Amino acid sequence: MKQPLAYINPAAKIASNVVIDPFVTIDANVEIGEGTRILSGATILDGARIGKNCTIFPNAVIGAVPQDLKFVGEETLAIIGDNTILRECVTVNRGTAAKGKTVVGSNCLIMAYSHVAHDCVIGDHVIISNATQLAGEVQVDNYAVIGGGALVHQFCHLGAHIMVQGGALINKDIPPFVKAARDPIAYTGVNSVGLRRRGFSSETIREIQEVYRYIYMSNLNVSDALDRVEAELPATKERDEIIQFIRNAKRGILRGYFS
Asked: Which residue is catalytic, options 119, 123, 125, 141?
């Protein structure tokens, strides 16, 4: 259902059952999947690709050109997965030549006034709370939860199943399964409540906690702690995910609270 007061470029590819409210603007190079609703005042610009059963709230803007002076008009995308909600005034800029696309996954909730900058890659089932700002080329893995008003430095990598305190200034990578809080931001334990809610067993949670005891409570540097983890703890999917994440961390990982 398309309201006559909306502007829809005839070249846009929109599924037949998409609901478009009055005063929406949709540009030409846009694709919108079945069951999605675009509420009044939203703006969908060239390069936007919106999946099925999404809800885009008033004054959200998807596909605006990057806020990056290196951008010179190259054709890039802003991709939103299925079943994702973008609340009021959310902005998702499209990519640059660096990656060619900005991606927000499926089943995500991006709350009001949040910004997802160029070339970010957001996984599935991610919650980004109100007024959080992601700089360019940030990666956020599946099931991460970021508290309101957080500021994330460019190129940071936030791991899966983390919980980040609202108002945090994040300038280091945050490895998977942890809680990050305090000022300055620090490791404050394993996100055991979130992990239980997602079906992790008590045994698996204890194994994850043991890995992080080596990393944050052994008085070893990170490299030596990882060597000890590999030598002394049994291999598990979660152990290996943590090791790989930390070894690949380009910005280093957040400090321990007591370090």
From this structure: 119
pTM of this structure: 0.96
Cα angle vertex 167, ends 166, 171, to 5°?
110
CB-neighbour burial class of residue 203 (10 A; exposed 0-12, middle 13-18, buried 19+): exposed
Catalytic member of 136, 141, 159, 173: 136
**Of 118, 125, 157, 161, catalytic:** 118
- Catalytic residue check, 153: no
d(CA 144, CA 194): 10
Q: What are the CA-CA distances from residue 71 to residues 115, 137, 140 (Å)? A: 18, 14, 23
The residue type of 188 is: T
Is 147 annotated in the active site?
no
Question: Are residues 140 and 122 in contact, defined by beta-carbon separation less than 8 angstroms?
Answer: yes
Please confirm, yes or no, whether 224 is among the known catalytic residues: no
Tens-digit pLDDT profile for residues 202-259: 999 999 999 999 999 998 999 999 999 999 999 999 999 999 999 999 999 999 975 5
